[in-house]
Amino acid sequence: MKQFQQAGIVIFVISLLLFSVLPFIGSYKLEKETLAASVKTEHLGVMEEVLAPMVGQEFSSNFAFMGEFNRLFGGYNDAMKANQQWDKVIWDNYAFALTKASALGPVSQNPHFYLFITVVFGVVGALMYILPMYRGKPEGIKHDGIFFSSMKSKGLLGILTGTWLILFYIVLYWFPEYLTNLVLMVDPISMALSGNPASQWFLYGFVYTLAIIVMGIRMFRKYRGNAYQTIRTVSVMFFQLAFAFLLPEIMVLMNMPWHDFKNIWPLDYSFFYDYRIDGMVNAGALGMFMLIWGIILIVLGVPIFTYFFGKRWYCSWVCGCGGLAETLGDPYRQLSDKSVKAWKIERYLIHGVLVFAILMTGLTIANYFTEFALLGQATNQLHSIYGFAIGSAFAGVVGTGFYPLMGNRVWCRFGCPLAAYLGIVQRFKSRFRITTNGGQCISCGNCSTYCEMGIDVRWYAQRGQNIVRSSCVGCGVCSAVCPRGVLKLENADEEGRINEKPILIGNNSITLNA
Ligand code: SF4
Ligand code: SF4
Q1: Whether domain 432-514 has CATH 1.10.760.10
Q2: Which of 48, 190, 299, 425 has a CA-to-CA distance to 482 between 20 and 30 Å?
């Protein structure tokens, strides 16, 4: 079986390498027709003139193609800006559309083949490794040797994986024109689902969903015998596949706006942006439903569900970010920082992002209803800052790229404004708590080690105190790894939920009256 798994790893690594070099193969040639098909009519005349030197010329790589494009197009815009001819500056970014449309390489000729040797091969290799895992071993958590693993303990493999993820996110968010071959490769799937060619976001959603499904299967193997972990994993796989990936594409096919029904403001920070509201208002009854549903989730869904079940109902069962963290990120959960200092930073950061999101949204809505008389286009600047710093850099690059370096919940713990909102409700008005049968605790520290949110669970267990923390996402892993059955995730009466037992003797503590 070992050889079979090793073969799986080899296949996976080869396909990952192919996936990584694919963006750099093939040549590029801009034709007049391509330009006409990819550029807005009002820009066509200028673009034809500006890009004339490169039309019909074949470039041997996307670097050469983009170098020439940036020289010509950037040169034009710079000249207009220098002359203060702001109305002539072209703000639209055509780099991705033109690079994709100009690709001549083998991927555009045969996308199915390249999809097969990268993605399908990669999935097969990963499953060959995952499916035989823990075969013949008893049920229960297997964390043997985790701190000796280069991949799971910030060794060379972990650093390389983190670097790859960080680079992928940077290119995806800010230089998608260099990923056009990968996007071309998934074009047939996008065409089949929505009737539209793929964008870099379709590629991202596709890879993201596959990662959750494949690593979700790994969760089934690793947490075999634990019903809570199994059902929770099925839930995140389902919500990602059905609600975040398939349904929005099908809606586009039906000429409706792309919409993820389970994404809630302020995580879905653009929900109240003017173009989103206009899109929903102008999309008939279903569009109005999207708007009302989104508002109901914010105003009623979050407080009610969190009151009854804690924030786990969203963070560990529904959310896409949580879904990736709980599946792809599971091997790295022990890397979260448990220090009090990290807890302090966490509280400042996450609530700071929540305040930023609320202020930005408040100003956006006020501006919208005053027909932009209040702040003009200034809210766009605010959106750009938030989108760059929080939506892309924090949630994407740091949130996922740093899995192998800082643990799997960096974004959920330090940055997600929705987690902050859910956490406030969970801390002050919820039936959820983790109860501790403290007299049984042997202080092994497994619970704290594997808490992905950096909660020092053992500190509470040793004192027989319930764990009531705004950051707890109710993943249940602390309870699963406890060798003494000390911890139990419960929804019960609010009374006695927060209990302080300063000195523990057996299961009944004593309190000192000073
Ligand atoms: S305290 Fe337990 S349930 Fe909560 S996040 Fe940590 S490991 Fe998960
Ligand atoms: S894992 Fe269980 S026994 Fe070990 S410190 Fe935590 S609560 Fe105590």
Answers
A1: no
A2: 425
